[in-house]
Design brief:
This protein is mainly beta. About 5% of the residues lie in helices and about 50% in strands. The radius of gyration is 21 Å and the shape is globular.
């Protein structure tokens, strides 16, 4: 009947195709704010997976064509604030892939050529305006800094890049104002700091500052008051205060977490630490002036098997937790009054183990 109507009425043909297209756009979340996109690095398949996540239910939908080819062993991904581009650090290829985002459905297409980095780029950071991209090169002990073309997404190395840092550093974080960049080194259990001026890095005097043993993850709170470090060997999270003028850090103390913490993130007055060994998330409230952490009632919260990383929903309603062993991304709802977490039973299964995730705003 549907085919017959198309054959016998040109006007009906046009109208039918219009409504089919509108229905497909609605399903994919196009032209609306009912959902957002998320991109996941898949090192073992040299690809980046793409999902659309419903803003209210946290239901995951795999975007057509996902996963998309990238370089060799992408370890870290970042979405540009314009939602036009995704960057993937290819640790086995020593370069960065630029992937353009289809504005209609969120699919990816790589724009060649790739941009060279130092040896083994393992972590990416970007300022909140999307002006500069920073790549931490683990083996060569350096940070590559690039200016970002807002129209094309193309990367251009900043004068003086790459900038030296301590060898075998594993993670980095930039302050929201992009004044300071912090680099975490597990070998010496310390945080190094740099001032940022038009993408150029200068070491902050008096650092590094030592944290706990086996540090694996670092983040900065939105108010630029504290730096937090997850210490996997000590089963603690370290809190460091930031000197707003110089960027220097002062260790305030360390607080117990679950077993083998591997990721840390901040949402307003709440801090969340993913514990790989105990398959939990430790949740804390943060004292705004002292930085003292207090476990939230019900914490730690149970997750799936061996969670490795976590990412906040752009609306602050969900925490997404990634597991390499289970090959899943699971969503937990956040009680905005108490900070407590509740499993939504919503998740996405990745084709291979995921290593990093970035969510479009």
């Amino acid at each position: 009947m549907f085919l017959r109507s198309l054959e016998t009425s040109p006007c009906r043909h046009v109208h039918t195709l219009f409504f089919v297209a509108m229905g497909l756009a609605s399903l994919l979340g196009c032209g609306s704010s009912s959902s957002h996109t998320a991109y996941v690095a898949l090192p073992n398949s040299n690809a980046v997976a793409a999902y659309r996540i419903n803003n209210t239910s946290a239901v995951f939908t795999t975007i057509v064509g996902s996963p998309y080819p990238a370089g060799n062993s992408p370890a870290s991904v970042r979405v540009h604030p314009s939602n036009k581009f995704v960057y993937a650090a290819n640790q086995s290829e020593n370069d960065i892939s630029l992937l353009s985002i289809d504005s209609a459905i969120g699919s990816l297409h790589e724009v060649l050529p790739r941009t060279a980095t130092g040896l083994t780029p393992v972590s990416l950071a970007m300022d909140s305006e999307g002006t500069f991209l920073f790549a931490l090169n683990q083996v060569s002990g350096s940070i590559s800094t690039y200016s970002i073309n807002s129209g094309s997404g193309a990367l251009t190395a900043v004068s003086g890049s790459p900038f030296s840092t301590f060898p075998n550093s594993i993670a980095l974080a930039i302050t929201p104002s992009a004044k300071f960049l912090y680099v975490l080194n597990a070998n010496v259990a310390s945080v190094f700091a740099y001032t940022v001026t038009s993408g150029v890095l200068q070491p902050v005097a008096g650092l590094p500052v030592q944290v706990g043993n086996g540090p694996l993850a670092i983040t900065v709170d939105p108010a630029e008051t504290f730096v937090y470090v997850a210490n996997s060997a000590d089963n603690t999270v370290s809190v460091l205060s930031i000197n707003s003028n110089t960027g220097a850090l002062t260790l305030l103390g360390s607080f117990p977490t679950g077993t083998t913490p591997t990721s840390v993130t901040v949402l307003g007055p709440y801090l969340y630490v993913v514990n790989l060994g105990s398959s939990t998330v430790s949740a804390f409230s943060v004292a705004p002036t002292t930085g003292i952490l207090t476990q939230i009632t019900g914490s730690p919260f149970t997750t799936g098997s061996a969670p490795l990383f976590e990412v906040l929903d752009p609306n602050g309603l969900f925490l997404y937790v990634g597991s390499q062993t289970a090959r899943t991304i699971s969503a937990f709802s956040i009680n905005t009054t108490t900070g407590a977490l509740t499993s939504t039973s919503q998740s996405a299964t990745t084709p291979v183990s995921p290593s990093s995730m970035s969510v479009a705003k």
